[in-house]
Amino acid sequence: MDFKEIEKSIGYTFKNKELLKRAFTHTSYAYENKLVSNEKLEFLGDSILEFISSEYIYNEYEKLHEGEMTKVRATVVCENSLYKVAKKHNFGEFLYLGKSERKTGGKNRPAVLEDSVEAVIAAIYLDGGIEPARKFIVENLKNEIEQASKHVGDKDYKTVLQEKLQEDGEVEIVYEIINESGPDHNKEFEAEVKCNGKLLASGKGKSKKEAHMKAAKKALKNLK
Q: What pTM was estimated for this model as a whole?
């Protein structure tokens, strides 16, 4: 498989092409062909990703306290964010998958794609050191980090709304995603929040969680 396209996309050229190939070797393919899979690279890449993202948040967002930094990192270092990175660079087309995994749509499976991103991060680190790994992580996740930092307090809105609505007793609060639009790497979701069947508000966000929070925030404003 010619990796020139993927190297161009990620902005890094490997000296050791075998490292890149291993990063895309799923366990199912490795088992069938008696090869080394990308599992150990995933393990290393996960640690590098957490360290570099923590370092970036620490340096760039001085006003956030420790708890907020943890929340931002947790929002970014997750399957949804890494899935977007994989789709952006078309990683699914470069995966070596076993026959069964290929037939069942493994190249589009979020968990498989997330693992491939972590494996590529480790491969870049082993091939070129920490700086190119840092460059790849920051370039691909800085926008996600920026969005997460803006909404780090949004986690409180659903709780505040629930407490306010239940001041006079138990009520049924339901959040529902009513629409989603945009390509896989840049989805927008719209959510509604209802109380005992009555629509309170709707909100839009880049994730289902963010859409829920925006709806809760608007509902609080409407109640006031």
A: 0.71
